[in-house]
Amino acid sequence: MLPPEILEAVASFSREKFTPSFQLISNDSLSGGCINHVHRITSSHGDFCLKFNQKASFPGMFECEAFGLNLLKESDTLRVPSVIHTGENGEYTYILLEFIASGKKISTFMEDFGHSLASMHLNSHDYFGLDHDNYMGSQPQSNVQHDQWINFFIEERLERQIAVARNSGHLVQEHIGSFQRLFARLERILPNEPPALLHGDLWNGNYMVSEEGKACLIDPAVYYGNREAELAMTTLFGGFDPAFYESYHETYPLQKGWKERLPLYQLYPLLIHLNIFGRSYLGSIEDILKKF
Predict the structure, then answer these.
(1) Would residue 201 show up in a list of annotated catalytic residues for this protein?
(2) What is the three-class DSSP state of 188?
(3) How far apart are CA 116 and CA 289, in angstroms?
(4) For the chain: N or C, fewer Cβ within 10 A?
(5) CA distances to 24, 39, 71, 205, 284 from 137, in Å
């Protein structure tokens, strides 16, 4: 159920932005995962998507999401929902988005998706990271800028999650030693590439099929990083077929050995899952450490 203070805030903003006669007609709950509440808002000015949560739990989350969505939209490659407004009222914070209706995949859905993602990754910057931190799921994500990908990957991705897991007892000294040995080898393993604009959390639950039948990205954890990290996320839980990767490679060819390196990048999301959901993810982490 939508809290009345959220409805009041949305209606007040909409009357100022659209028309004084704006009226909320109805709202329906949508699937929103375990972090946010998501509703479809039907109004006299059309439909919107509204996400909200308690601001004390995830401070600044929706401002970060809005920035990330706008950055992806500026690349003019893959569709993302337009951000209409972010705000707060009482104990709640919210983001109001363009509502995108779900459609049926076009026959070349995965090929189009692969080409478009590669085009997005061609957008680069002069650093790895971002000018502010954000979230990956419910976990704060550090984006302190680095000139070198290896330093960013170790310090802002792996070491921060390792520290959380060690403090909670999920990782012991044996694991820490394995990570340290891996870090010493990464310079010989990982390729040098320019920073790429990444969605940051591209698993099969973070894209939808738009009414045009093409991919639409949602729930980003945006930063500039090595694009192999993005592709590693797509393989972690499945849902992307071979045509996706073949089309990607046609547009922005990957360096030799990229498939073999993907498990290394999966350490970051696996550590996050370890810290959120517990030790059921530890075996996968241990297997990757043994492999490398």
Answers:
(1) yes
(2) helix
(3) 32
(4) N
(5) 30, 18, 18, 12, 20
- Asked whether 4 and 24 are in contact (CB, 8 A), the reply is no
pLDDT one-digit tens code per residue, 248-263: 999 999 999 999 999 9
Amino acid at 52: F
Q: Cα(93)–Cα(53) distance, rounded to whole angstroms? A: 6
Of 111, 145, 151, 140, residue with least CA distance to 128: 145
**Residue located via tokens 């990754």:** 121
DSSP bridge partners of 107: none
Instruction: Identify which of 255, 184, 205, 206 has the alpha carbon closest to the alpha carbon of residue 226.
Output: 255
Global model pTM greater than 0.70: yes
CB 234 within 8 Å of CB 202: yes
Amino acid found at 210: S
Catalytic residue among 133, 147, 201, 219: 201
Mean pLDDT of all residues belonging to the chain? 95
Instruction: Identify which of 204, 205, 156, 171 has the alpha carbon closest to the alpha carbon of residue 278.
Output: 171
Give the tens place of pLDDT for each residue, 226-241: 999 999 999 999 999 9
Q: Collect all residues with Cβ–Cβ distance below 8 Å to 44 and sequence separation of at least 6.
A: 21, 22, 23, 25
Q: What is the DSSP letter of 195?
A: -
Cα distances (Å, whole numbers) of residue 165 to 5, 107, 170, 200, 285: 37, 43, 5, 21, 12
Closest by Cα among 156, 7, 16 to 89? 7
